[in-house]
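MODEL INPUT / OUTPUT PAIR
PAIR INDEX: 1
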Amino acid sequence: MEEDKMAILERHDTGPVAHLRLNAPERLNPLSDAMLAALQEQIDALGQDRAIRAVVISGAGKVFCAGHDLREMQAGRHAEDKGAGYFADLFARCAKVMTGLSGLPQPVIAQVHGIAAAAGCQLVASCDMAVAAEDARFAVNGVNIGLFCSTPMVALTRNLPRKQAFEMLTTGRFIHAEEARAMGLINRVVPAEDLAGAALELAESVAEKLPTAVKIGKQAFYAQAELPLEEAYALAGQVMVENMLERDTSEGISAFLDKRKPNWSA
């Protein structure tokens, strides 16, 4: 039976912060076909939602996300009308979700507990920031079952130094939250009971800023990271010009000089 998209991905909003919760705890919140479809649906909606200024992604139950749905993948392998075509489509849909997160105008924060494994670790790495509970663990452990985590590798190598990323990919070893923070995979480690509050605090801090500036800055952040130094500065300079010409930016600067709160229109 096909999973209900609304049931497996819950959304509630706290003011300008949207909370998305992976909600298939009995199966460890896998990135099944239905979960990917539900995430893509929300990404499309959030991209047009001017009231939302930050997004938090969490998981129900004991873990954040254990990766792809292996039972579903095996079924796809053996179905007469699927095979290679199914797998190619699956990984393309997954990549669209992951790149869609970085393409959102709002910053996206992963709120991680339990484990984030394989494509679940990819999901964490694809978010703009991440807060984890002290007992959280991370791995790209597909190699342990004979499947190198090649698509999670893309996001992982854009977060971690190469040697650390390669070790994780080839050993399948789980790393603890503090090690993940030291490597650069996550931003903060907090006690489990403080996790939701810490993620919301970070999201609300971002949401207080001028949305136009954050949107422009997020786009530039990812674009410049892929460019040589001189081209990166040229792009960043163009972005600064665009940002400076915004009416609300002028108001923000004037408010700072006048020692008052800005009266932004957004």
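PAIR INDEX: 2
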Amino acid sequence: MKPNHLLCASVLALATGSMTFSASIASAEPGAWSDEPVRIVVTFPPGGTSDLVARLLAKYLDSEFGQKAVVDNRPGAAGTVAADYVAKQDADGTTLMIANNAPFTIAPTQFETLPYDPMESFTHVAYIGSSSPGLFVKPDAGITNVAEFIESAKEYPVTYGSSGVGSISHILGEAVDAELGIETLHVPYQGSAPAIQDFRAGVLDTFYDMVAQNSEMIEDGEAVAIAIAAPDRFPGVPDVPTFAEQGYDIVIENWVGLSGPSGIDPATAEQIRETTEAVLALPDVVAAMEDLGISTKAMPSAEYAAFVETQIGVWEPLIVAAGIQGK
């Protein structure tokens, strides 16, 4: 990777034509779309961003709109296990998934073959939002910025944990190595929770994960976030500088959405989208999403589908630069 190369997987570039929540909800009629419980499949174990978003949706779909929903965690193979499962289910709106970078915009380049097509095998229903990961180090390491991290990494071996091979935290870790001209050892986990647990236990020197999601660790002095891979500082953790502020053009955003099997009836898909957006507009959910560091935005389903397709091309050079393509 060339120095100062901008690593950008941003949803902001595709904002044209997007609706605001208030505009979309004004004409919507949100409500339950099935008498049967809806299964919301998550590509990672409990505790990560996708899982927390799924549980928020399930809770408020039930309490506010009468739609029973359960969360089904199916981790494995960089999210492709869950995606393959969902693609094979009935297209009646009772099986959905929290779509994200891993199985849809990373896996198509990461793997030579997939058991599904990221576009043809799915109905991409509702875009939810995006968040950004950051770099965490031990408080006793005495590292407070990226320049000091580079000095330390060149002098001592550094291990970093991620939520799995091909995950956004892995991509960021490899991109940081390439951009900063250092070599660190990647230790993959099944989800961010076990990586953080090993970091706390002293097994790992660093880890990459969503910054806002780990704000309590920062506040409690258990970890120091030295940089966030966002275009701007996140208001929830205003003291954490961006990589760009420190002279390194690294911007990677993790998007999440709601998708289901191909062939969901358009009227049902529209009902799901409208209800999802209504949930995301609830004050308690707005506050919870801010705590997770997720910037929400509504999109028509067609625009969300086009966004997913575009992101495959956006992420391809990042994956190639990380050296994990064609596995």
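PAIR 2 NOTE: The mean pLDDT is 88.
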